[in-house]
Amino acid sequence: MSIGRTIVGLWRSREETREHHRDPNLRTRYYREPRDRMVEKVVEVIRGQLRGWHVVHVSRDHGEIVVERRHWLGTRDITITVYHVSPMRSAVDIVSSKRGSFGDLGASYADILAFFQALNRVAQLEQKS
C-alpha cells in the first residue's frame, strides 16, 4: 500500500468498489459464475481464508453478505453484494467502512484487495477484452 493511500486514510474511513472507479483496484469485478454459486463462494472464502472476518448475515435472495472485520485499528463493517448479470455471469461489489470518527489508515482499501485476491483463487474472473 502506498504512502499516499495511508495519508488519505487519516481522514477517510470508508472505501467501496463501483463500475467506473478511477482506481482500477476498486472497480466492480465480473465472474463467470451464476449469482447463487458466487454467493456460496464468497461465504466460503470469508469463512475459510480471511482471518478476522466474521459473517454476520447472508441474504441469498438479494445477493448480500454482511461481514464484521475486527482489527487492531478498529472494527469495520463490510457489505459484499453479488449481482446477477446473466445466467452464467455475476458481478461483485464491496463496501467497507470503519466504525468511529477517525480514518482507518487505508485498512479498508487493503481489506478490499485481500478479499478479491482470495476470491480470485476460487472463482473464474472474467478478463476484459
Automatic annotation (TrEMBL):
The protein, known as: DUF1499 domain-containing protein
